[in-house]
Amino acid sequence: MQKQKFSYHLKNKYVLVSIFLFFSLPLYSYEISGNNIPYFDAISNLDFTNTIIKEKLFYSALNGNGAIRIQSALTLSDLEFKNTGDYRIVTEVCERLLEDGYTDIVILEYLLDSYYLQGDYENLIIALNRYKSENTSAKINFYIFFTMFYKNNNSISEYYRNLLIENPASELIVTAYNYIKDSEVDILETTSILANFKYHTYRKEYLSAGSSMSILLKIQKGIISDTLDKGYIVDNVLLTPIILNEMYTIASASGRRGELLSSIEELLSMPGKAGYQSGEVYSYEFLAGLYETAGYLKRRSGSYTAGAEMFMTGLSFADGIQYEKMLWYWFNSLVQISPEMAVSQLELLTEIWTDPDYFVDVLDEMATIFVQKRQWNIIHKILGLLEFSGPEESISKYAYITARAGVESYISISNLEITRLMTLSYNSGFGLASGLYYRILAGNYLKIFDIRQLPWMFNITVSRDPQPQSMGREGSSELVWGWLEFGHFLKAYNFLMDNPFSDFSLVRKTAQELSENNYHAKSIRLLNRYSLIDGFELNNSDLLLIYPDAFKSIIIEIADKEALEWYVFTALVREESHFQQTIVSSAGAIGLSQLMPATAEDVAGRLRITDYNLNDAQTNLLFGGWYLGNLKKRTDVLSDALFAYNGGLTRVRRWRSEYSDLPDDLFLEAIPYKETSHYGRKLLVSSVIYGYLYDGIQADQIINLFYRK
User: Domain spans of the chain?
Assistant: First the structure.
């Protein structure tokens, strides 16, 4: 197909004049180059079957700048695969990009797909050889196998085995399985059994997959036994991390966990019986996978002590994220055995962890346990172990709880030490959610807030992610600006979430566009994401987007009627739904106030409403406001009403009975439901911010509304 045909309409004078008039503003405002204009024009037209639209995409794919070339090619390829199926266009565009050095893996996948679906297997082979790089994917691995299959390569069994071992069970694996099954190709029996395991795993045929798993385990034992007898290093390993993960799933689903654990333990013992150390004959990857899987199996059986031993031993052979996961499971297992035992090993944990933030949740769990037990001295001890190397969020939490224990005379510490701990909590708190909770409470105790400062409650000196060093591929900035100018703010959002930019003006403009078009949740997520990046300092405009006053007139009307503060009810709606009017949770809660159908039905009956729609904003907020107001009337303090909104009034009353001696803020720390305690923290933070941003209300006034003095 000739390029001239695709550029014909762009040379037409009438079209050129129309394009110039239509695009004159964005050209002036953002300097979008002429070769990129056809792309933005094309995606602004919903009629993707229109030939002119495809021609414009084709033109920008060949002549545009950097990122816009790729985006044009991806859009065009996606359209052809979904609609007309003219894969020759895809072939030409993708080949040109790859030849020009744009080695995007998706571009290569589209090129290989186009040759495969055209039946042009010779060019598929050529493309694989020409453009194959270190970057790979399951699809590329499939095509490597297929080319060997097509050429009747004598090593097809080996290629098939590698495909099965290196890639998770998927539709591609099933396709390869069917190719082999329908052919006369001879493959090794072991490979055939492995293929059956993968095939049945993907189809969730757990009993059949379990039978294949048993055979594979016996084969692996035989391979290792023969290898060790000959004095060789074991390099024929079927149980790769991917296979072990699948075996764990299959063993759990088919009732074979005991069998899998027994086999793994036997594999781990085999080197010793042959007179070797495991690390002498097994690869570290193999050993780490065996110990990790054994640890999971031990935990599932309730043997936390044995599981902890497996994870700790396996740490010697693990690295990267696998190391951090095994370390977390080791420490969490200790918490399940005995929280006091975990405390005794906490110093060791702080010496060997590589990412302290990975352990915030388990440290939170420990805090809850020791508050429930009123073991304040242990909480103080944990703080001492964390203070100089722990995660900031955990330091802020433990410092505040310890200081409050001192205020309540639960432990004996001086007023000077209480002030020091409150200051530590204040300085360690950061973020936009529960991490800010202790900063607000500590700051309130210290009375260091100045409402004239911008914004006083945020610790903007702490960032988790380094600042991006570049804007990505050439043309990325122009791509995002173009999307925004032509109303494709969702494309800009997805791109910015996946490709952090150092030009924060792009982020702020995208967030503004999202908010103005009622995509508040995405606007919030985008700014939350960038607030953790070094160099992005929050300002008032950012906060107004992160904490928008959506549905304010309705909320104020309902809040006044139910004797609620509008900013508290707004905070509840924000945390429940992020202002997504028709959202449905995995548990079935519906709409802005996230009401369960049974709750809504009960509220409707009390309000004498027979016909209602929970996706309607007025109705949903009316029901949610009434429900919260009713809970407030039935509890002694606002925080309990909010806890009950999330966890149920019966549970809150039971918890209050059990922890009746604790002040309100420490009662929150004792709540056994993580979701409910976390929910309470988020609501206080949001309420304080809403009250400050929109009404200039001091934090202490809102804190005293939540908690009794």
Answer: 1-134, 476-537, 552-706
